[in-house]
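QA checklist item 7 of 12: single-chain prediction sanity check.
[x] sequence parsed
[x] length recorded as 247
[x] structure emitted
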Amino acid sequence: MDYTVKQLADLADVTPRTLHYYDEIGLLRPSSIGENGYRYYNDTAALRLQQILFYRELDLSLDEIGAILASAGFDVEAALHQHRQALQQRISRLNHLIDTIDNTIQHLRGEKEMSTQELFQGFDDETQARYEQEAAELYGAETVRESSRRWKSYTAEDKARIMAEGGQTYRDLAHMLDRDPADADVQAAMGRWHQHIRAFYEPTPDILRGLGHAYEEQPEFAAFYEAIHPDMPGFLRRAIDRYVDML
């Protein structure tokens, strides 16, 4: 069966522009061009598009995908088995992350105690290394080292108290989402949030503001706070901006 650009785009849930671009770069050529100038794709092309989308799901670049598909030893069935294994591993990791999110929400609500190690269950070594690198680039390597030193210096009781205080602050803020970020109670809570951050390191105003924007813009942070309430990330960013403006 042959498909027009729009038909194949609809089936694959991509835009027609995506298919045009894949044609331009030689990644997915039309199977034929009709007398009317329309591009048509057959079942073989549809299968190739499926492979492209699987590899995109695994975060490969288009150049990398093109090289794989063009290799002499490429085997569709073998590739499908590899995709299945990779996706199973990703599903397992995401399930761990979902459990961590659920447990952390319970922790913030005061319904569950969590150790610091448990806060990071589900994050693989590569992801944690990326976070550490991003933190070093954003806050400076010395700040990251200081945070690690401070945390290691605390007793188990200190750590439990710090996490409980932080959880209470987020619970307080979650009950103020209908207020203006400049509200006195909101800003008092932001002061407690600031003190919570200081338990880890001494943040500059720029770092505080950067945290607020990260809460809203970075997918991992945003997903965490959206699980508490969909409006939480944006509210935190606005409240932090206001707090920093008043420092």
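[x] summary fact logged: The first strand starts at residue 3 and ends at 4.
[ ] second reviewer sign-off
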